[in-house]
Specification:
Helices cover 9% and strands 51% of the residues. It has 383 residues and is mainly beta.
């Protein structure tokens, strides 16, 4: 573990220890406060998600040991109060930290290894009421986060609309006849080297806004519809609408959002996923941006899957998917990706084993790149 990671862990332990000491040294406690503390619903959760990643771009090939960025390892704790004097209200807060050691989205051919990182995913307080909705304050999900990622296939951990998660930092390699090596100047010229484009340069599902320090309001659910808005800054805000529906053994989930992602950048995203009672499922997503240049960034994604009960240990999920990005890095770019996916639930362990093989393709005017192939296999254990 890198030194920065130890500092984070020390801070968490110190805060926890300090809280315990403070409680021990309290000379007196108000009767209502003591009763509330005794009635608090405290819960915690954690998961470890480790994988092996193989990548080959036609020039370089390498194996990596990674933390899977689709659902990174994490630890969280939350506490709720439901005071009788305010019937129907729930007050609470949560802290969730993510731990990334060799994050799959940051590894690169030839290294160096990514730094160990602790990610403050959620540090927020909230008030909830079925009649009036919910208000959240602090670091947490923006309203539009996840609106391009509705997915009932059961294969989210191995493949979803953000197809870059397993290889974002890996570079495409120019074909031999196309250009000089990216790290060197061509002999006898003063032309600077062209940096090799990476997967994150040309793939993005434009999934609204991520997590931030914000104020968020979620309206009460009405007939399966849930609306939400959040504000993190003058030019950083969003609104989203979600819907869920169950008809017997069939399930449908959908979402759509608009986001202002800084001055001059408007972003939209939407997704829909259908799971039939027979196990067949379909997922689609779209996203894009209006930007102040000649580009028109666009993302489309589709997945077809099948969920089967072949083994007593848990459900088996199979899927194939396809993604296409246009003009994310520069005008005229077309990036495509497709994959086959396997995911096996291990219910007695609250775990799942997964594997996916994915190919990335970049078509850029004036350049010719080899495909980038990756294979990712790992285990996610939740507790």
């Amino acid at each position: 573990m890198k030194r920065a990671g130890w500092r984070w862990m020390a801070m968490v332990v110190a805060v926890a220890g300090g809280a315990t000491a403070a409680e021990t040294n309290e000379p007196t406690a108000h009767p209502l406060a003591a009763a509330a503390k005794a009635q608090a619903d405290v819960r915690w959760w954690a998961q470890v998600n480790r994988a092996a990643l193989y990548a080959n771009n036609g020039t370089d090939s390498e194996w990596f040991h990674v933390d899977n960025d689709s659902m990174p390892s994490r630890f969280g704790v939350a506490g709720d109060y439901k005071p009788e004097v305010w019937g129907g209200w729930t007050f609470g807060g949560q802290i969730e930290l993510g731990f990334k050691s060799d994050n799959s989205a940051e590894v690169a051919f030839g290294g160096p290894d990514p730094d160990f990182k602790v990610d403050g995913r959620k540090i927020e307080a909230y008030a909830k009421n079925k009649k009036y909705g919910a208000l959240s304050v602090g670091q947490g999900d923006m309203a539009s986060n996840g609106t391009a990622e509705e997915d009932l296939s059961g294969t989210y951990v191995a493949a979803y609309s953000q197809v870059r998660f397993a290889a974002a930092g890996l570079a495409f390699a120019p074909r031999e006849a196309d250009a000089f090596p990216a790290a060197e100047e061509p002999a006898g010229t003063n032309v600077p080297p062209r940096p090799a484009p990476t997967v994150k340069d040309v793939f993005n599902n434009f999934d609204g806004l991520h997590r931030d320090d914000r104020v968020r309001y979620d309206a009460p659910v009405w007939r399966g519809f849930a609306a939400s808005v959040s504000v993190a800054g003058e030019e950083y805000f969003d609104a989203a609408l979600r819907h869920s529906l169950a008809l017997g053994a069939h399930k449908l989930a959908s979402a759509a959002a608009f986001a202002r992602k800084g001055a001059g950048v408007d972003q939209y995203s939407a997704s829909c996923s259908l799971l039939l009672g027979c196990g067949l499922n379909f997922t689609a997503a779209v996203g894009g941006q209006d930007v102040d240049d000649e580009r028109s960034p666009l993302s489309v994604y589709g997945k077809i899957g099948y969920k089967a009960d072949w083994f007593a240990a848990g459900a088996t999920m199979l899927a194939v998917d396809y993604a296409r990005n246009e003009e994310m890095a520069q005008a005229g770019d077309v990036a495509e990706s497709y994959a086959v996916v396997f995911n096996q639930r291990l219910d007695p362990l609250n775990a799942e084993f997964y594997a996916t093989a994915r190919n990335y393709v970049l078509d850029r005017e004036g350049a010719d790149y080899d495909d980038l192939f990756v294979f990712l296999s790992g285990v996610k254990l939740a507790f």
